[in-house]
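To the wet lab folks,

You asked to see what we're planning to order before we commit. Fair enough. Below is the target structure as tokens, and below that is the sequence we designed to fit it. If anything looks off to you, flag it before the synthesis order goes out.
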């Protein structure tokens, strides 16, 4: 099925342009996007072809290709013409979503969308249980005048593995004497991933709900654990004429250490390699803070993988792919774990819930449980801080 099947040619092209994909006209088919795309490490895929087809409004919308982009940022980072491949890809998804045309691999994203509408999170967790992870931690509701709002995020609130990171984060804050609070069941998903799957209306509703809550509660400064929350609050919510100070957890922990509020007195005698999440690194240029924090820890030996910093290999979870089906032999996270293992490190550290989720699954599938640990930076800091 093509877009032309469900709508006239001119209408389709106009919709793509209105949805933010008008930069496709700049493409001169050099193919650099395909050369750097992580998909071509596991299977054949051509972003160049999608851009070309978008020019003519002929892209097939019942296949998987327009849903493959993980929005990792590699191709726009290298594009000599400023084609904005991510915007083009998302605009095609918006058109497909409008006409309710989805391949089988994307059906779980539709379930996530339904859960976002009903419960404010993509994981089908009950809204009233959003703060259950903190029940025995005596975490306060956010009140105006507190130092920071800790915006926990969906995965840290509901996923069993990521709840451990949220608890470690609270421990770090308490050790540093931070006056902070959370929103509990008033917190909604930031909406970043659902926007990337084409559900613009759902994103806007989530954004408006969060913004109203922030304003009503007098929020001035947010600390977030997820790079996707960081990106959305910092770069996308200003579209709604609001602007809050947003800080990623790795930056804030470094701030606490530099201010002598959080002391890293313990030792962590392990070799560690750090993975740059796409939305922390390429999308928001935060490379130093996580590494500086790790290098402050006594005994920790930091080593780099083959693909690092600007060239970091995507885990495969961005662009809503965290909710979509990916065959095991096509998972970037498997490649990344092999790269981590090749450094001789015993710990793969990162700072993103999608990355940790994918890496933990790959660690299990590749039977690397005894060889490699996967840790969020907050967990490592919590082990050595006081």
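Sequence we intend to order:
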């Amino acid at each position: 099925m093509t877009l032309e099947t469900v709508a006239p040619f001119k209408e389709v092209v106009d919709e793509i342009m209105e949805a933010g994909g008008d930069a496709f006209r700049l493409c001169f088919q050099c193919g650099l996007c395909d050369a750097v795309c992580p998909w071509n490490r596991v299977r054949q895929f051509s972003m160049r072809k999608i851009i070309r087809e978008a020019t003519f409004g002929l892209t097939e919308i019942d296949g998987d290709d327009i849903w493959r982009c993980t929005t990792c940022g590699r191709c726009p980072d290298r594009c000599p013409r400023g084609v904005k491949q991510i915007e083009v890809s998302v605009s095609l998804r918006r058109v497909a979503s409008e006409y309710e045309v989805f391949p089988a691999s994307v059906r779980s994203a539709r379930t996530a969308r339904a859960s976002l509408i009903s419960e404010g999170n993509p994981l089908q967790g009950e809204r009233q249980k959003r703060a259950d992870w903190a029940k025995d931690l005596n975490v306060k509701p956010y009140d105006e005048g507190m130092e920071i709002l800790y915006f926990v995020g969906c995965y840290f609130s509901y996923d069993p593995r990521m709840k451990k990171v949220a608890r470690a984060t609270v421990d770090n804050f308490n050790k540093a004497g931070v006056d902070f609070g959370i929103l509990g069941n008033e917190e909604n998903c930031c909406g970043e991933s659902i926007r990337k799957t084409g559900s613009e209306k759902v994103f806007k509703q989530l954004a408006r709900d969060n913004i109203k809550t922030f304003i009503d509660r007098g929020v001035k400064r947010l600390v977030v654990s997820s790079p996707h929350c960081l990106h959305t609050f910092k770069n996308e919510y200003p579209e709604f004429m609001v602007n809050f100070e947003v800080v990623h957890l790795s930056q804030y922990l470094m701030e606490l250490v530099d201010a002598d509020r959080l002391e890293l007195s313990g030792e962590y005698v392990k070799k560690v390699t750090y993975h740059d999440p796409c939305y922390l690194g390429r999308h928001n240029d935060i490379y130093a803070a996580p590494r500086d924090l790790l290098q402050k820890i006594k005994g920790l030996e930091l080593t780099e993988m083959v693909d690092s910093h600007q060239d970091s290999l995507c885990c495969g979870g961005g662009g809503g792919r965290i909710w979509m089906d990916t065959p095991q032999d096509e998972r970037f996270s498997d490649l990344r774990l092999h790269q981590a293992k090749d450094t001789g490190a015993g710990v793969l550290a990162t700072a993103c819930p999608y990355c940790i989720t994918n890496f933990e699954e790959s660690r299990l599938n590749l039977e690397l449980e005894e060889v490699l640990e996967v840790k969020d930076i907050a967990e490592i800091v919590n082990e050595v801080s006081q």
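Structural context that might help your review: The two ends are 59 Å apart (CA to CA). DSSP finds 17 helices and eight strands in the chain.

Thanks,
Computational group
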